[in-house]
Amino acid sequence: MKQPEHIPARQDCRAPSVRTAGSTTSPASPKPTDSFPDPSAPSFLTPQERAARFERICNEAMLERRSNGSAGIGTLAEKWQHQIVKRYLTERTDCHELRLPGARYVSDVRIGRSVYEVQTGAFAPMQKKIDYYLTHTDWYVTVVRPIAQNRWVSVIDPETKEISPRKRSPRHGRAEELLPELYCLLPHLGNPRLRFHLLMLEVYDFRLSAGSSRRRTGERFERIPLSLLGELTFTSTADFARLLPPALPSPFTVKQFSALTRLRGRDAYSAVRVLAALGLLRPAPSVGRAMAFTVSTTVF
User: Fold this and answer.
1) Are 233 and 200 a contacting pair, CB within 8 Å?
2) Are residues 163 and 297 in the same domain?
3) Rg (CA), the chain
4) Kind and range of the H or E element at 237?
5) CA distances from 172 to 130, 138, 169 (A)
6) pLDDT averaged over the chain?
7) Cβ-based neighbours of 9, under 8 Å, separated by 6 or more
8) What is the dihedral of CA 191, 193, 194, 196, to 10 degrees?
C-alpha cells in the first residue's frame, strides 16, 4: 500500500511574491523567531520511515522505467538520481520544475516559500540562481546534495551493449565533500534563508568502457539510487563544525587538513577557506612557508 503523501494539502506550490526588476520593495527578512520551513521532512517521519519511503520511490521508478522503455522515469532527458530525489522531497508533481515569475530560472521543487534545488554536480552553475533567490525573493532555499556513500559499479560496452557483473566500489562518499563546493557561495554563507541538505545514498553506477580494456571505465552513463543511508542538514555554523576533523593539530597547515579529510589539492584549500569564512577557523602564524590556521573556540 502506498504511503500517504506527507506534504500537507494546504501548502501551495505556486510562487509567492517575487521582487521584479522594476520593483522597489525589498524581500522580507525572516524574523528572529522564524524557524526554517521544512515541509519536505516532517517530524513524524523516523529515519527508518524515511529510508522505507525512499526505497519505495526507487522501486516505483524502476517499474516505470521497465514499463516505459527508454522514456525513463520522468522527463525524457532527466537522470534517474535527480528525478528520484525530487520525488523524495515531494511526490506532488505540480510542485516540480516551476518557473520563477519574471525570471529565466526553474525551481526543482517549490512548496510555498520553500525552494529545493537538487544539485548532483558542481555548485558553481547554480550560483546565479541562488543569488536570485536570496536577493529577489523572501523564499527559504535548501540545496539538496546526494552523496554516494556506498556504490556498486558495472561497465557497459558501448559497441556490444554488454554489461559487466556489478562490483562494489572501494570509494565511499563523505559529508566533507560538501565543503569545497560551497566556495562559490561564500557571499551567502550564514544567510538564515539558506541551508544545505545531504542525502547519503547507496547507488548503482553504470559506466561506459574506455579503450580496449574492459577494466578501464570512462564517463558515468547513469546512476541509480538504491537506498537512503542517512541525512544531514547544515543550517548554522555549529552544524558545519561537525565536519572539522577531531584530530586537527593547532596550528595546522592545509596539507595536514588534506591528510585528515582526504580532500586533495584545490578542494582542500577551498574547504579551508569556507570554514574560515564561517568563523570556524582563524589564521595563525605560518608554519615554515605554509599558511596555517587554528580552530576558533568562539563557536563551541
Assistant:
1) no
2) no
3) 21
4) helix 237-240
5) 28, 37, 8
6) 83
7) none
8) 130
Cβ neighbours for 75, distance < 8 A, ≥ 6 positions apart: 83, 97
Whether residue 178 is found in the same domain as residue 281: no
Domain range for 217 is 47-235
Q: Count how many Cα atoms sit within 13 Å of the Cα of residue 228 in the half-sphere of its side chain.
A: 26
Q: What is the pLDDT of residues 36-60, one digit of tens each?
A: 656 555 556 889 999 999 999 999 9
pLDDT digits over 70-90, tens only? Answer: 544 333 346 889 999 999 999
**Distance set, CA 267 to CA 181, 262, 274 (Å):** 8, 10, 10
The C-alpha cell at 113 is 516559500
CA gap 73, 250 in Å, rounded: 50
The answer to the question of residue 166 being in a domain is yes
Tell me the C-alpha distance between 83 and 284, whole Å: 45
- Supply 3's cell numbers: 504511503
Quickly count: other Cβ atoms within 10 Å of residue 43's Cβ.
6
Q: Are 169 and 152 in contact (CB under 8 A)?
A: yes
In a domain, residue 20? The reply is no
pTM: 0.83
Residues 251 and 210 reside in one and the same domain:
no
Distance of CA 214 to the CA centre of its chain: 32
Q: For residue 29, is it within any domain?
A: no
The C-alpha atoms of residue 61 and residue 81 are separated, in whole angstroms, by: 10
- The bridge status of strand 281-287 relative to strand 140-156 is unpaired
What is residue 275's three-state secondary structure?
Answer: helix
195 and 67 in one domain?
yes
Question: Is 231 in a helix, a strand, or coil?
Answer: strand
User: What percentage of the chain's residues is helix, strand, coil (to nearest 5)?
Assistant: 30, 30, 40
Structural domain total, the chain: 2
